[in-house]
Amino acid sequence: MRPRFSLLLPMVVPIALGACGPTPEEQAAQDARDVAAVIANQEPPPEVLEPQPITYPDIERNDLFGAGCNFVAEGGGIGAIALAQAEEGYMKRGGEVLTFAADKGSAQQPLNSYRRYTGREYAFTLDIETEQAAAAKEADTEVVNYPARLTVIDGRDRTVYEASGIAQCGS
Predict the structure, then answer these.
(1) Do 60 and 36 have their domain in common?
(2) Which of 4, 13, 21, 129 has its CA 20 to 30 A from that of 41?
(3) For residue 88, which of 110, 61, 67, 57 has the smallest C-alpha distance?
(4) Residue 14 and residue 97 in one domain
(5) Percentage of the chain exceeding pLDDT 90
(6) Chain segment 125-147, per-residue pLDDT in tens
(7) The domain containing residue 111 runs over which residues?
(8) Among 7-21, 98-112, 127-141, which stretch is predicted with the lowest mean pLDDT?
(9) Are 37 and 97 in the same domain?
(10) Do 94 and 26 fall within a single domain?
(11) Helix (H) or strand (E) holding 125
């Protein structure tokens, strides 16, 4: 004859195994933590920045006169889309002229311009190929054109604009 507890064994095992898992409250708390971690780690795609030419009326209205280098993108017409001056740099987006502080710890370039400028939403780097002085062409007596490259990054260090072109340096 068999002992009676063997009949109860199939009923006890599922109950014992179910007691090992989290309570519904614990599971809900863990689910909330998991969702919060996923949301915190989501990164929206970088914005595509389309700089606009800084026009003479923009220069007058914002008092952007001074010596420095103006970047004109290859194939983008004759309008400068970035100005690099001794104290500040400028770009235009959505009709608004954005101001950038000169990073005076970066390399100094022609006419007291700097390689890097930092703003609230973006930063830009203007790489001017000054070592290729033979390739630079004088547009007139006060302006020298250098091959250059402009790179703009957003607040997460992602490139949002990049172009080769000419840096027109003059006063």
Answers:
(1) no
(2) 21
(3) 67
(4) no
(5) 65
(6) 999 998 765 455 555 568 899 99
(7) 56-170
(8) 7-21
(9) no
(10) no
(11) strand 122-128
Q: Cα(47)–Cα(45) distance, rounded to whole angstroms?
A: 6
Phi, psi of 131 (to 5 degrees): -70, -15
Res 20 pLDDT > 80: no
Which residue has better confidence, 8 or 102? 102
Residue with tokens 């022609």: 110
Q: Which residue is listed with tokens 């970066």?
A: 106
Write out the two tokens for 123. 């930063």
Interior angle at CA 142, CA 163 and CA 60, nearest 5: 70
Q: Distance from CA of residue 107 to its chain's centroid? A: 20
Is 79 in the same domain as 126? yes
Using CA atoms of 12, 14, 15, 21 in order, give the dihedral in degrees to the nearest 10.
150
**Strand 159-170 to 137-140 pairing:** unpaired
Instruction: Give the pLDDT mean for 106-129.
Output: 96
Contact at 8 Å (CB) between 126 and 99? no
Report the pLDDT value the prediction gives residue 2, as an integer from 0 to 100: 55
